Each structure stands twice: as structure tokens, then as C-alpha cells.
Amino acid sequence: MSDAELPRLTVIGTGYLGATHAICMASLGYDVVGLDVDPGKIRKLQSGEVPFFEPGLPELLAKTLESGRLRFTTSYAEAAEHGDVHFICVGTPQQPGLDACDLSYVDAAVRGLAPHLTRRCLVVGKSTVPVGTAARLSGLLTELAPAGAEVELAWNPEFLREGFAVDDTLRPDRLVFGVTTEWARERLAAAFAPILDLGTPTVVTDLPTAELVKVAANSFLATKISYINAMAEICEATGADVRDLAQALAYDDRIGGRFLQPGLGFGGGCLPKDIRAFAYRAEEIGVGQAVSFLREVDAINRRRRSRTIDLVRELLGGQLNGQRVACLGAAFKPNSDDIRDAPALDVARTMHGLGANVRVYDPAALDNARRTYPELRYGTSAMDVARDADVVVLLTEWAEFREIQPEALSEVVAHRRIVDGRHALDRDAWRAAGWEYRALGRP
Amino acid sequence: MPYRLTVLGTGYLGATHAACMAELGFEVLALDVDQSKIERLRRGELPIHEPGLEEVLRRNLDSGRLRFTTSYEEVAKFGDVHFVCVGTPQKKGERAADVSYLDAVVESLAPYLDRECLVVGKSTVPVGTAERLADKLVRLAPAGAQAELAWNPEFLREGFAVRDTLQPDRIVLGVASERAEKILRDVYAPLGEVPIVVTDFPTAELVKSAANAFLATKISFINAMAEVCEAAGGDVTQLSAALSYDDRIGGRYLNPGLGFGGGCLPKDIRAFTARADELGAGHALAFLREVDEINLRRRARMVGLAGEALGGSFGGRRVAVLGAAFKPNSDDIRDSPALDVAVKIAELGGLVTLYDPAALANARAAHPQLGYAESALEAASGAEVVLLLTEWQEFVALDPEDLGAVVAARVIVDGRNALDVETWRGAGWDYRALGRP
């Protein structure tokens, strides 16, 4: 396909998803305009700065800005003028105090864009939304756009993993096209032509199924994590070893070892919010019982956090008050600076609340953690926070924590006690070095 | 000198294990307390339907490596390694597993064990059972602590039992000593390169329950998505396809449909939750109750879809049911979703005619009130609705025109999402399925 045939793209919303999508699509040769209502964000991006931590993305931004194929704006009129295909990439956070997700950004994007749509074009939702949202937005578009029914809506869920977002965008496992017409399918195929040329499998389906794929995938992953953590609870009650158990299960390829690592459980901006929003939406459409298992999944996940604190308390002889606790990790997972619903910080804050003298170190998320939880104390390295500690707690499995030598840490701590919340360390090596080692679900 | 093996219990698991161990070259003596079962096995007759097993059985009877007995004394005298392969069914009226057959084997065998030997449990048991049996063994055996226990859970799939025994994904050894580990490694050495997980008793016991709990959870997960699709107008088969490209999820056991049944999954997850309750960890497995309920709701939904296809009532209407076994390539009808649906429809006044390629005799014996036929076409003859309830290949391969020629109305409800919707609708059929528009 020649460049002349490539549709011109816009990306509404330049957060994690939108910025990644805009930059990656420009890198594939598309003319892309990224829009955000936040002029500060736009200025940063325009000057080549990615406002979050994502490997590979800053380099790609610099390259695409230089190529002239990527521009940023705060003007809906400009975006509407430019685009043949408009991707909506705004966030759908959890509503404060509710399990439901907040669709006001998605609605605002459609309401902002639609009045400027005067010609035939495709609006594509990528955000994770409750099933039924696309049908409603489709009606809203037709009603508000001067081009009326010439403007069509499609749904094309994103499947990005933080830390792998560029690769997941450029070389996805699959593309899902939720469409209502053949024209919309063709437009999407044109918008993803270089990716389809790689032989990427495509599932063409209706709008509700496309909306469901992302929440269903996240629900499955959350379920798998909580499943092995439920097994850890059983192991704790029976003296069994959940690591051996997980290994034995992983050899069964109907199960597989991915997402079967027992530990402190999931967090972040997606899994917890997505499963809660899914359960909430299922209630609304009268099939709450179908996904009520997700509440158990959520409850298992939360119990891992309190169990970790119990292990710390047991190692300290029953009392956290006044004890010096070194926390390794703040991000919800390694290779990320994201601290949204981070199990690590949840554990650190709870121990702080129980009177422990907590110090936290994380290779990337320290600034975010400090800004959000100024009441905690922070250090500049693992060794720094471990100095004189009564107990060390590994909460996020960064590679640099895995590589810590027990002998080196022994030099600085007050007591050789460690709780491994992520099964990241070699138990036998640490015990051999004189450490009291405890982990979730292991004797 | 190679170990001499014995197998206690000659049901599905025991017969397979005994024949396969003999196939590997061991001298094997298998025991059952049921004299008639032993006589049939001696003649080379299997009481179960399992592809390839009868050949293995006969070959090893002929070679003389495999023999059968009803005498514990003979077994104790013969064997260095004793595999306990008896069943642990669900207790009547309870969720818990009945381990009385296991206890009976240990109580019968132990008094004859007067030399060093290894007793190896293979049955699926509540965690904690092995430790209890190990104590019992030492107490009752004249050899005392020389009679040691190990746990080595089985992972057989019906229809693939021979392959799963001779080419397993992995071997799990729950052992209390290096001696026990060495003996079992020697026994399984002829299998070649197989991953071996060496662990303690409770972990080994948990592996099988945990594996079945995961598979049940995965099946019910996609069936829960089917329930959501039914309410939201989505298509669960496309949803499943989109999910299965994600290799963290995978397409295995992600086929939406009528759900699981059989002698293992339902009983194992119930026994697992019952045991967790006893241990004070019931909250950990509360999700398995949801898994069970989702699974049972699929059967009710299937009856509902069939009723809708008939315009609301089953009274006096002809219903063809294809499938009785709980899954294809099996004659097993224990807790079969297909039969459950057929029986329910008959209770609601439907005139059910059922056909299954292998499970017909078992179904007829258990449910004589249903009508039976000798082929799919005969079952469908004059039917007002056809229900596909077990996805046998011969049903998946049915020609919509052939079937259309014999039915009274071209209406089909696909309980296994096994048929091609375009083909059947193209041939003028009213096609309905679970979780699809």
C-alpha cells in the first residue's frame, strides 16, 4: 500500500495508552495528530518528553516528532479536520467509592469531537469500557455529528502491558475489530495495514463482544493469579509448598506457567479496577451471578497483603510497633513506575499505620510514591533502606532485588530476617547464609 | 534385579497402571477384591472403554508379565513397590471424598508386609490423607518403618489414559525419604526424559485437586462469559477465539458449552472445598462453589434454550438428544451434563430419543425411562428439535441435509458450540447455541 492510501489518524487522549498508540502509529508511517485537553501534557510531548516510564517510547517519540508525522494539539476542530480514523484512548478510572468505572472522559471525548465531524469518518474506541458503552456512544455520535450517520463507531480494544507497550502495539498477539459494517472493517484494516501484513490474527466481531474481550482477558488473568494464591492459602493450612505445587501444575499445558506465580498478588491501574467494573456491569445487566466469582478473586488478592504483614509480624515476634522495616519495592510490578493500587505500598502503609518504622526503596517509582504517600520514609538504594533494619520485606520483584546477595545484605541489617512477598529469592541460599526466610505459601 | 510391582484396585486407574507398567517391562501383579472383575481381566476383557488399553492388556497377559489375583498375601509376598489405585468417590449426600477403600487396602495389605517395601498412593485424596496412612502402615506392618509410604498422583485423561501413563507431562513424587525417591525414579526411568517434581506429602496430594480445580475454573470462566454474552448480545465463541490468542490464557479448556461432568472434576472440586472447610481455610476456595454453580446453570440454560426453540413447552414434543457420555470418546456417564439435560426434558414431558456412539448401554441401564436409538439419524427421525449435547466427531460431521431429511422441523440447539453456524443456517436450520446471538 502506498503512503497516499494510508488513512490519516488522530488519537484522543495522550495518557499511557494514547501516547503509546499515537507514537507507534506514527512510527509505522501514518500521519498522526494526538489530542489532549491538558496543554501541559501536550507541551511535554511536543518537546519530546514522555510523561511516564515506558522502555523504548522516548526514543520512538523523538524519531517520529523529527519525521514530522506526529503532531499534538488541544483543538478538537484540528483533530476532526485531520483525521479519517479517530482513536479514543482516554482513561476509564474507577469511580471514587464505587466499583463502576467512570466513563466521563470517554463521553467528553465524543462530545468534544463529534460537533466537528463534517465528513465520513470512523471513530474507534480503544478504552476499556463496560459492555454496552459502544452502542450508546454510537447513538451519541450520530446525533451530535454534522455528518450524522456518515460517522461510524467501531471498537478495537487495547492489550498493552506496561513495560512492553511498544512491542504489544507494533506486534500484538491479535487484533480485535468490533464493527457494524464492512466499511468500518475495511477502514480498520487500512489503519492497521502494516501490522496485519505481519500475519497478525484478527478477530472480527460485533461491538459488545469487542468490548468484552479486554475485561474478560483481565478477569481471566486476575482469576489465574488468585487461583494460585488460593492454593498458597491451602498450603499454609497444610504445610505444603506452593512453589512445588505451581511447578507441578505448570507442566500441564492445559494450565501453563504464565501468571501462575504465587505471591503478593495483583495491583495496578487495570486488573483491580477492571474486575470490579466488570462485576458491577454484570449486575446492571442482570447477570451478576455469572461473575460473582470475581469478588472472591478480589478478596483472595487482598488477603495476600494482610498475610504478608502477618508474616512480618511473626518474624518480629508478634509486634510491629517501633520496629525498623525495610521495604524493597513500591511499584505494582517491576519495570514500571506505576503505583496505582500497588500491593507493595499498601503493605508498607499498613505497617506504618501499625507503628512500624518503615523505609521504602524502589528503582523507578520513588518519586510517585513520595508524592502520594509523604508520610512514609524513603531511601536511595536497597542497602540504604536495609541499614539497621529489623526485617527486610521484598514486595516488588525487580531484577536488582533478586540479585541481592544475602551476605552483602547481612552486613547492613540489624537482624537477618526477610519476608519474600514475591518468591523472588532462593530460599535455601538465604537460610544457608543465616537468614530467617519466610514466604507466602511455603514452609 | 528390577523391582516387582503390584497394583491394588483394578478400576479405570488401576487397570491402566498395571497394564502400562507391564508394558514397560516390569513383572506386575494386580489385585482386586471383586472376583468377577479379576476373571474378566485375566481373559483380557476390560470393564471400561479406553482406546488402546485392551491391546496393552492382552499383550502383557500373553507375555506373562501381568497377572491378577484376589489375595493380599500373594501381593505382599510378590511386590517391592505397591501402587494403591482404588477409587475415592464422593460420599453420598456430602461433598467430601470417601477414602474408605484406601483405608481398607492399607488395613488388608499391611499385616502381610514383612520386608522392606514401598507403598505408593496414586488416588486423588484430601490433603493430609497420606500422612495418616503412613502412620497406619508403620503401625500395622510387621516390617514397621521398613514399609514406607509415598504419594505419586495420577494425571490420566479418559480417552488418553495409555498415552498419559507412558508419556506423562510430569511425574510428581511426594516422598519422606531419599530411598523412596530413588525407588520411584528407578520405576519411572523407562519413561525416559520426563520432568519430575520431588516434594512432600501434602504438596503431592494437592497437585491433582489443584489441577482439576484449575481446569474446572477455566471451563466455568468461559461459561460465565457466555452468560454475560447472552445478556449483552455478544458472541462467546468469538470472545473465546480472541482470548485464546493471548498465550497467558491459551485456548485449551476455553470452549464454551454445556460444561464439565464425569467422575472427576465435579467430585474433586467438591471434595477440595469440603477439605478446605475442615482445615479452616474454606474462604480460600469459596470461588469453587461459584465454579460449580456456573457449571450447573449451563445445564438449566440448555433446557431453557431447547424449550424456547419449541415455543415454550416440552409436553408431548419429540426431542432428539445426541450424546450421553460426559465427553466424547468415552462411555462414562457419571454426572454427565448430556444425560442430566435429557432426563430433565423428559421430566418436563418431552419425548426424548437419545443416541450415543459408546455410552448407550450405560445410559439405558441408568435411565430406562428415556427412549434410545441406534444412530443419530434414527434418534432425529420425526424430531421437532435436535440437541447436540456431547461433541462426538460423528455428530460434528453430520450433514445438515441428511439430518434435515428425517426431522420434523429443522431446529437444532448446539450445546457444545461444535457446529458451523453458517453451514447449518445456510441449510435452512434454526440454529441456536449457548452464549451466541
TrEMBL record, chain A:
Active site: C270 (nucleophile)
Domain UDP-glucose/GDP-mannose dehydrogenase C-terminal: 326-427
Entry EC number(s): 1.1.1.22
UniProt xrefs under SUPFAM superfamilies: 6-phosphogluconate dehydrogenase C-terminal domain-like (SSF48179), NAD(P)-binding Rossmann-fold domains (SSF51735), UDP-glucose/GDP-mannose dehydrogenase C-terminal domain (SSF52413)
Alphabetized GO MF terms: NAD binding; UDP-glucose 6-dehydrogenase activity
Known catalytic reactions: UDP-alpha-D-glucose + 2 NAD(+) + H2O = UDP-alpha-D-glucuronate + 2 NADH + 3 H(+)
Binding-site residues, substrate: F159, L160, R161, E162, K214, F259, L260, Q261, P262, G263, G267, K333
Alphabetic keyword roster: NAD, Oxidoreductase
Pfam families: UDPG_MGDP_dh, UDPG_MGDP_dh_C, UDPG_MGDP_dh_N
GO annotation, biological process: polysaccharide biosynthetic process; UDP-glucuronate biosynthetic process
Alphabetical list of SMART domains matching this protein: UDPG_MGDP_dh_C (SM00984)
Residues annotated as binding NAD(+): D36, K41, T92, T128, E162, K273, R340
Superkingdom to which the source organism belongs: Bacteria
Pathway involvement of the protein, from the record: Nucleotide-sugar biosynthesis; UDP-alpha-D-glucuronate biosynthesis; UDP-alpha-D-glucuronate from UDP-alpha-D-glucose: step 1/1
Keyword NAD annotated: yes
NCBIfam families xrefs: NDP-sugDHase (TIGR03026)
Family classification: Belongs to the UDP-glucose/GDP-mannose dehydrogenase family.
Function: Catalyzes the conversion of UDP-glucose into UDP-glucuronate, one of the precursors of teichuronic acid.
Protein name: UDP-glucose 6-dehydrogenase
Organism: Microbispora cellulosiformans
From TrEMBL, chain B:
Pfam families found in the cross-reference section: UDPG_MGDP_dh, UDPG_MGDP_dh_C, UDPG_MGDP_dh_N
Record-linked SMART domains: UDPG_MGDP_dh_C (SM00984)
EC numbers: 1.1.1.22
PANTHER family: UDP-GLUCOSE 6-DEHYDROGENASE TUAD
Protein family per UniProt: Belongs to the UDP-glucose/GDP-mannose dehydrogenase family.
Database matches in NCBIfam families: NDP-sugDHase
Full protein name: UDP-glucose 6-dehydrogenase
Source organism per UniProt: Microbispora amethystogenes
Upper taxonomic lineage: Bacteria, Bacillati, Actinomycetota, Actinomycetes, Streptosporangiales
